[in-house]
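Title: Request for sanity check on Disulfide bond formation protein B prediction

Description:
We are preparing a figure and want to confirm that the structure record we downloaded matches what your pipeline produces today. Could someone re-run it with the sequence below and paste the raw structure tokens into this thread? We only need the token string, no images.
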Amino acid sequence: MTNDTATTTPRTGALGQVQYWLAVIFIVGWTGVVCGGLAVQFGPWDYPCPLCMVQRNFMILAALGGAYIVRKAMTGSISRLHYMTGWGLCIVGCFGGGFTSWRQTMLHILPGDPGYGGAVLGLHLYVWALILFVAAIATIGVVLAFADETAATRIPTGGAHELIGKLALWFLGLVIVINLVAVFCLAGFHWYLPDNPSCYQLFHDLGIIDGDCPVIE
């Protein structure tokens, strides 16, 4: 008795490169969102709370999932295992970030609560983060539902594929370093951030600024 198993070969044309370009979008998109948080931090001087920083870290993890796919694809060959590993990292990052942003939203859900930090287009940053995390998971699900058509195992090397991929990876790396420096400046030589940061503790620890950070309840 024999079983005839249908086998399919992933597409190699433009449709087959959808997952590659989506990974690039994930890198640039999530890194851009982190840049938005940094702009709010250093623009209106809105200090991020610990939950804000955790959300940023999960955004970076989601971007790193896309970076894994792009880096593997830049060699010219990428297996479905690599796609699944990359998207798995993205889903973990989006799920963790979604839960964290939901938690922060619930902390300020009662009527009359002004929320933490300023609002953008009528919503606080953590609410926008929740929306983006959920949308990202849904997007990954849709693409994976058509994985056979969108996961080419051969990606062109050189040209726009390599240039845009490298720019995205360098962009992510630069923002990761900037975010690490920003966190270090906030926390200083301490293990934890206060619930309501009110200064850059590092400069007080080094004696550059006299006195202690004001305590905000």
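Thanks, this matches our download. The first helix runs from residue 18 to 42.
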